Input
Amino acid sequence: MVRECNACGRESSGLKRCSGCHKVWYCSVTCQKSDWVPHIFECKPRRPITTADHLALAVRNNLLPQDTQTCEDYGFARAFTAEKRSKLLGLYIGLMSSVFIGIPSKTIHDWRVKGVLVEEIKAAYYKIPAESRGEYFPWFLQNQHILDPSTTADQSNNEGDAMVLHAWRFTGGAETDSPADIKAQINSMSEDKQSCHLFYTFLLSKWHPAPFHDLWIPFGFCSCASEEEEMYLGGQYQVLITKCTFNEFYDAFCSARILDLFHKNGIDVNVRYLADVLQNHNMHKSVWDLKQFVLQTHEQNPEGRMVNSVACDYGFMNCKKGAEIQALKKVYRTFFERYDADPLMLHDAAIRGNIFGYMGSLMKLNRKYERLMKNPYPLPVLD
Output
């Protein structure tokens, strides 16, 4: 039978099947190795997938990592500006790309686990001629704190203070206010106003809230279908704050008129479920809390905290042991990662007490989930 190589696209009847997943075919060992970086996420590898594998995929695609733990492990979470994150990615491209130094992801992972990532990166670059090291390695030598947590405290505090100061002045704060004055005035603000100011700090640093952050739901990022869509929404917010005053933004946030503010300033925002989330930031559907809970990694939520509505509405209260919680969490995460996921349909299924029926129409589920997905709904109608 004629098949297509999963790497180069060549068609042949003599291709060899992947021994891990038995689903894809290759015309040579070279093609199989070249395709391993993306294929590992679809295959059944003989070792656990690590954050270094996510980093390798980012390098392969020339895109910033989307996995939040990868960003934490490899410094992107401590690179506070878009420029620094771009340069850090450039450093890793030079380090890991097969056309440059070519260090494999397993080796990168081992370096990080052993606590020698910084030193090994320097050693790898020093092995090649100075004229071949590019512009990112010299930058890295001046910014090693991004990868070495033991040296980040003062630097991070300084950069964090600079970000807050930038946001303070951008929102109309006095140039003469000291860091202590700024902190005191921010702390005296209402909770909603503090949230808006912190959000400005994110936006002015070319960043946006991640699923583990409290601002992820109130400003609608939970409605995005992917990290790319979150970046798009963050970009639209960055445009908006240059066209309105901070008080206008704050008033719109408090009165659930953020979308009106976008439209008033001629900014189109095409995010399917954004209007549902922004209609009331103090009272949103529990499905958005569910999405936030299941997308968080163990490192981001080691105690497994969840709001009561998630436990009640989506069946976690039925779990008798940690393994069941993790299994149920994985099923919901798989749902949210689907291109055709409709969170509002899932919410409606929960209200009707038919989560298992709805989820089962989209994916194959073990019968055990019928018990786990039970909830108290639909509520009885009172006379």
Q: What stands out?
A: Residues 152-170 form the longest helix (19 residues). Strands lie at 3-4, 11-12, 16-17, 25-26. The chain has a mean pLDDT of 90. The longest strand covers residues 3-4.
